[in-house]
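Input (structure):
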């Protein structure tokens, strides 16, 4: 094994540098390397103090997540590395740059001093991986910062800036020069000073006198989010409680280890760790032919961009591009709409300033990067244009013709469509290889997901450029194939159809939503529908010919159809935007959903009209009927190679649709929590119950894999 830590000397100072790119994760080799280097430094009489730092871009960013369940516990484990550092007979200075996260921060807490570069960040992200900071983080952290801070940071996983870390007592000094040189200068100063009193493990917990009140408040706060949520935050809290309630530091550590074991062996932690790697796996895209992929295709440079359409999506997309320093032209046809769009972007920028996320100077820079225009001719020099006009094929085609005629030949033409056919848009251009879909999610400047849709003729270079741009603008770009609704909305349609049938058969909207929330989604289907606006789906269905005179009310295009959503729209209930939809919001734009007797009356009248005997529907049936057709559709999507791997589907659902990370996304959940044989059996059961709904027919890939899993 190559050396993953090295010891060098500058005068009387030993420098232990971790060398394990890209993030210096604390793998077996790193733990071994640090231990050996520290022992050598201890026995070298020429060394009087030690600086511990990371090579390349960062201080260790945590334990090596890929080792969990494997080499993770192999000696020396992380806890014993920390004991070696803290007990060294020479002072150790942690010199932090980049990110000191999780195990990396725990390493720093075992050092006697902590220096931090002003640009560095730190935190305990373990909770997002379904675990806790189990290398004594829950015990040491409240001994350097106030108990209330420790609880807030560990249970939320929030990363903080160097400035905040310094103000919270987590680091001793901020520096802005070369981190190693700063560390050496500092170490020279303290080399001969007594340091043993700085061992964090020997210090009292800060704020212990009010511990009961602090824990009670934290428990209340976490309990309010616990229904359907992950178990890790509460376990983190219990572990921190050990720092106050256990009689010794060692007993606290044992308590922490017991809770960590419980978490590690829970399915949730495995799912959350899968989610972490899935999000990274999607950037390694590959076309179904296998020959064109992210390894062998280079992106083009994108220096300037344009967005067509200054509505909610267009302004959100423009804001996203501007925030990453990309000069952006915003095009509208009408001065009034353009002004409204520019004002909306101005508001978004002001919000960032108010939240202290950007300075006034940065805000000014964003304004100068934005160029509003009424002329398509201004598109001539841009590297990419993203159209965000009305979701209608004829309008999109008109816009694509104009973009094709006016943009330079190398420019990429992208559509922010949520459902429509990219290949059809490409037919009206002379550059189908440069046409691609970029499906942003609302609000576009906030949501992390970006579904990028490859058309039949989209070139590898166009894909590589858009995937690269996605990362640059802070999005999780997922490449998918072209079909109605792509991956996310195609699966959502199945879930929506069943949710609507359930309210025809006996549930009320809030009952379906409650089940979904207990599963872990932040909002139920009907709440989300009200938020998005029921009229959008209504118009799309009209465009597809699903709504119109002469159609039977409950059976359209060869299968069962629920007109409940149409009934809502036809009664003026468009969702939050009209103050009422499935729920009542009190006022236009209201956000708090209340049950509405009028909605319930509309549903009951519909049932009466069609002689539907409403029945009590158990939560199990609600969940199976909402989730299993969606999962079945996910397998169809894989079978048709619209997605090339589970990770793409799961990441789309976790980052764009609120699927709870602690169940790993629909595909992971199906395979690991429920089991494919069970899903297959239930699909057949419901197929027999509801023969007039095609989505209960199990897809061939699911059938095959269920059979294989059943044999194991
Ligand atoms: C922990 O510490 C537990 C302890 O308390 C207790 C132990 C007893 N391990 O994200 P990027 C890989 S839990 C393994 O694209 P960026 C990543 O998969 C840990 N691999 O870069 C990717 O690989 P590839 C607590 C890791 O610049 C490559 O590195 N720490 C780890 O956008 C680049 O990653 C965390 O949770 C890891 N810990 O962001 C921090 N980290 O190229 C997790 C990264 O093959 N990491 N990789 O796809 C992060 O948040 C980000 O990676 C970071 C850099 C902000 C550091």
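Output (sequence):
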């Amino acid at each position: 094994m190559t050396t993953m830590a090295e010891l060098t000397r500058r005068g009387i100072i030993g420098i232990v540098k971790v060398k394990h790119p890209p993030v210096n994760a604390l793998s077996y080799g790193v733990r071994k390397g640090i231990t050996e280097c520290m022992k050598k430094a201890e026995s070298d009489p020429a060394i009087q103090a030690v600086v511990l730092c990371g090579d390349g871009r960062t201080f260790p960013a945590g334990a090596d997540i890929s080792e969990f369940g494997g080499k993770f516990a192999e000696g020396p484990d992380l806890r014993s590395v920390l004991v070696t550092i803290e007990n060294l007979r020479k002072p150790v200075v942690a010199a932090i740059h980049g990110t000191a996260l999780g195990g990396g921060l725990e390493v720093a807490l075992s050092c006697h001093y902590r220096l931090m570069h002003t640009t560095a960040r730190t935190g305990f992200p373990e909770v997002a991986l379904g675990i806790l900071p189990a290398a004594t983080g829950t015990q040491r952290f409240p001994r350097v910062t106030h108990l209330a801070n420790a609880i807030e940071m560990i249970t939320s996983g929030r990363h903080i800036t160097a400035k905040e870390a310094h103000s919270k007592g987590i680091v001793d000094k901020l520096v802005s020069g070369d981190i190693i040189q700063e560390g050496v200068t500092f170490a020279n100063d303290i080399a001969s000073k007594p340091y043993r009193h700085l061992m964090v493990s020997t210090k009292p917990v800060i704020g212990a006198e009010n511990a009961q009140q602090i824990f009670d408040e934290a428990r209340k706060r976490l309990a309010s989010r616990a229904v359907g949520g992950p178990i890790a935050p509460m376990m983190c809290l219990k572990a921190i409680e050990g720092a106050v309630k256990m009689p010794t530091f060692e007993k606290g550590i044992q308590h922490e280890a017991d809770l960590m074991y419980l978490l590690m062996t829970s399915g949730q932690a495995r799912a959350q760790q899968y989610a972490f790697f899935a999000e990274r796996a999607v950037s390694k895209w590959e076309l179904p032919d296998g020959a064109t992929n992210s390894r062998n295709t280079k992106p083009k440079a994108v220096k300037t961009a344009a967005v067509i359409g200054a509505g909610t999506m267009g302004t959100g997309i423009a804001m996203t591009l501007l925030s990453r320093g990309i000069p952006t032209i915003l095009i509208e046809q009408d001065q009034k709409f353009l002004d409204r769009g520019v004002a909306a972007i101005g508001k978004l920028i002001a919000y960032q300033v108010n939240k202290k996320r950007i300075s006034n100077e940065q805000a000014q820079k964003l304004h100068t990067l934005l160029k509003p225009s009424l002329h398509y001719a201004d598109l001539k020099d841009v590297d990419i244009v993203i159209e965000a006009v009305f979701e209608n094929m004829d309008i999109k085609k008109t816009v694509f013709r104009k973009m094709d005629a006016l943009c330079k030949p190398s420019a990429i033409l992208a559509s922010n469509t949520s459902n429509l056919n990219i290949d059809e848009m490409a037919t009206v251009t002379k550059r189908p290889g440069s046409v691609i879909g970029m499906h942003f999610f609302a609000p576009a400047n906030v949501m992390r997901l970006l579904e990028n849709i490859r058309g039949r003729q989209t070139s590898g270079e166009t894909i590589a450029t858009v995937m690269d741009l996605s990362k640059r603008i802070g999005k999780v770009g997922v490449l998918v194939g072209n079909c109605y609704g792509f991956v996310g909305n195609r699966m959502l349609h199945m879930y929506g159809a069943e949710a609507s049938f359930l309210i025809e058969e006996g549930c009320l909207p809030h009952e379906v939503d409650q089940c979904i929330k207990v599963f872990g989604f932040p909002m139920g289907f009907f709440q989300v529908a009200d938020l998005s606006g029921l009229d959008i789906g209504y118009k799309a269905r009209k465009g597809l010919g699903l709504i119109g005179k002469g159609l039977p009310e409950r059976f359209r295009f060869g299968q069962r159809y629920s007109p409940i959503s149409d009934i809502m729209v036809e009664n003026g209930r468009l969702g939050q935007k009209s103050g009422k939809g499935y729920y009542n919001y009190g006022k236009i734009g209201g956000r708090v959903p209340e049950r509405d007797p009028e909605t319930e009356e509309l549903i009951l009248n519909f049932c009466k009209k069609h002689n539907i005997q409403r029945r009590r529907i158990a939560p199990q049936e609600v969940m199976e009927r909402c989730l299993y057709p969606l999962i079945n559709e996910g397998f169809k999507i894989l079978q048709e190679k619209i997605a090339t791997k589970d990770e793409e589907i799961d990441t789309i659902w976790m980052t764009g649709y609120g699927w709870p990370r602690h169940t790993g996304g629909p595909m992971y959940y199906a395979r690991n929590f429920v089991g494919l044989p069970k899903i297959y059996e239930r699909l057949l059961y419901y197929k027999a119950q509801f023969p007039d709904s095609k989505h209960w027919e199990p897809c061939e890939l699911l059938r095959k894999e269920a059979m294989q899993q059943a044999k194991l």
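Notes: The two ends are 36 Å apart (CA to CA). Residues 288 and 641 are 6 Å apart (CA to CA).
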